[in-house]
Amino acid sequence: MTTRTLYLCYFGLREPLVQTQVLPYLRQIRAGGVHVSLLTFEPNKRRAWSLEETDRWRKRLEADGIQWFSLPYHKRPTLPATLFDIVAGTLMAARLVRRHKIDVLHARAHIAAAIGAMTKRLSGAQLIFDIRGLIPEEYVDAGVWPKGGYLYRLTKAAERRLFAAADGFVVLTEKACRTLFPGNSNTDYRGRPIEVIPCCVDLERFRSTDVISREELRRKFNLTGRRVIVYVGALGGWYLTQEMADFLAVAHEQDKTTFSMILTQSAPQMIAQRLNALGIAEENYLVREVLPEEIPRYLKAADIAISFIKPCYSKLASSPTKIAEYLASGLPVICNAGIGDLDEMIEEDRVGVIIRELNREGYLQALGEIESLRLDNNAPDRCRASARNRFDLGTVGGERYRRLYQRLFKKEKVKSASDLVAAP
Questions:
Q1: Is the pTM of this model over 0.85?
Q2: What residues pair up with 201 in beta bridges, in sequence order?
Q3: Residue 147: what pLDDT?
């Protein structure tokens, strides 16, 4: 019998996160023989989606074995809008479960899990809670909610209900697993399966640039003879933009050949103004938004990659996709301590440097240590091997998702057999 899953995603289909994370994982789940449906929530659905575009995407996903459904996303007022979407999502998901005989509700993060838990009560389908972070703690760490405040306590109470309702779990890091499920990292105290699945990438995207020489790319971007430091991702919020700019200023002072390449979808002035104020001339840095498919080419032209994220309790559950992309490109990384499993992974695999103190002395020490890695001819191969062993979409992410589904239904069969034996 074919297993059928409905993936609940409280994001729009065309958002980068869905394109680079959700859809690749769904293709991997489909490759395991699971029939996949997807429900997304689309911002400005009526204006942003023409009938032609909707039909084009639906056919594209059907070619991958994914059946796509969507609802409008409502933003304001925040709490009523979210509650409305949860109710609408539950009604839609319940209809899809009945119509398509869905076995599993696979919920990405807390809002989708709320939809999944309510739909489970209406339908009896099993629920996978794909935990993407410690959401209540993230709001506290970001200074949005006071710890112990009403919204924090309400969200924690709702989270406890979601944990009770789920039949299986996904977490991003080993640290998050030990925090949420102390004891056995394979199952929880009720025997429900758990899989640790970090943010993975399709390594083929980064191998495909190997046909173009690194020096050819550096000539194209006028980087010949320069030390290129690259950053990929958002600015502001959790990302320590000021500290990153300060680090780059130290790097430019330490080595006058340094060129900083910042690939971001955020407003360029968020970091450009700081770089200018620190005395870095505009010809010595680039701040640009690039398409996801262009990122591997830019990374290939770099020497060192960096990541600066606010270290706090909630970030124990963080698995930055950029780290997997850097390593897949053969780049040694510099990042600050306290983010997910990165400290142990980077030091164990010898693929980068951890900054313990975010100050000038810490930056200079990191730059000195990374130079040793740059002189190590084996370092790029170690970086790629680390990406292959820890972040490969097929052999790590896809394999673990497929294993979770197998474990979930193996557990269900055992439960059913036990019920038959116990029946009078």
A1: yes
A2: 392
A3: 85
